[in-house]
Amino acid sequence: MQEKPPAEVIVCDDGSPEPVEAFIKPYLRKIIYIRSETNKGVSAARNAGIRAAGSDYVAFLDSDDVWLPDKLSVQMERMAAGGFILSHTDEFWYRDGRWLNQGLKHRRWGGDIFTKVLDMCRVSPSSLVMRRDAGFFDESLRVCEDYEFILRASLRHEIDYVEKKLLVKRAVTDDQLSSGIKYIESVRLGILERFAAANPEISGAKREALERELMRKRSITGGRSL
């Protein structure tokens, strides 16, 4: 439960083999339920929710994750006070019955964070609250869609960061635990190369940081991008 309840709850069922509608049947009159008969990926599910939203702001919650009770109230108050259109928070990590230490590698920031998210996504979608017109996720991506979204968002906007753990993230992925890093970096390299080509106006310190990160990713992957 949230101290500040959401204006509406939208459940996006991305072709799950589980009987999701049966599970939520007691709430169907109070929520918006969207089901895709085929699995289209997490980006398509989030975008369906954004399009269906009737309020000016949207927040995301992946099925494995849990919000702490004051999450929405804290973020909405800060966004109103600071004029931010995107906000994210710190988070707990929990996997296989134990709490995980994120380490300095996964440090988060607020403000003009573009140069700080070139290496990896440092904004968990389940921690994100944003204005509905902030954009959509790239539905062509099956992984690292959050990385691509935050690259675009942070280039255009300052992002609020609540330095308080307001989310329990239980879907900790292998790339966050440094397994299969070469594959993930190949995906990120492809995203970053396309992003750089699509935004030739980036200049100065931001362009320098972008080029350095491209070089770093190419050295890790042997220049192979996906």
Describe the structure.
By secondary structure, the chain is of the alpha/beta class. The protein has two domains: 10-177, Spore Coat Polysaccharide Biosynthesis Protein SpsA, Chain A (Alpha-Beta Complex); 180-226. Helix content is 33%, strand content 18%. The chain is built from six helices and eight strands. The chain has helices spanning 20-23, 42-52, 71-82, 145-156, 181-198, 204-221, and strands spanning 10-14, 32-36, 57-59, 66-67, 86-95, 98-100, 129-131, 160-169. Strands 3, 4, 5, 6, 7 and 8 form a six-stranded mixed sheet that branches. Strands 1-2 form a two-stranded parallel sheet. Helix 1 (20-23) links the parallel strand 1 (10-14) and strand 2. Helix 4 (145-156) packs parallel to helix 5 (181-198) and helix 5 (181-198) packs antiparallel against helix 6 (204-221). It is globular. The chain starts with 9 loop residues before the first strand and ends in a 5-residue tail after the last helix. The relative contact order is 0.15.
Summary, kept brief:
With 226 residues, the chain is α/β, with parallel strands linked by helices.
List keywords for this structure.
single chain, 226 residues, alpha/beta, Spore Coat Polysaccharide Biosynthesis Protein SpsA, Chain A, 6-stranded mixed β-sheet, two-stranded parallel ribbon, 6 helices, 8 strands, globular
Examine the secondary-structure arrangement and name the CATH architecture of the largest domain.
Alpha-Beta Complex
- Report the portion of residues in β strands: 15-25%
Mean pLDDT: 93
Rounded to the nearest angstrom, the radius of gyration is 18 Å
Strand runs, count? 8
Instruction: State the name of the first-level CATH class of the largest domain.
Output: Alpha Beta
Distance between the termini: 40 Å
Overall shape: it is: globular
Number of helices: 6
- At CATH level 3, the topology of the largest domain is Spore Coat Polysaccharide Biosynthesis Protein SpsA, Chain A
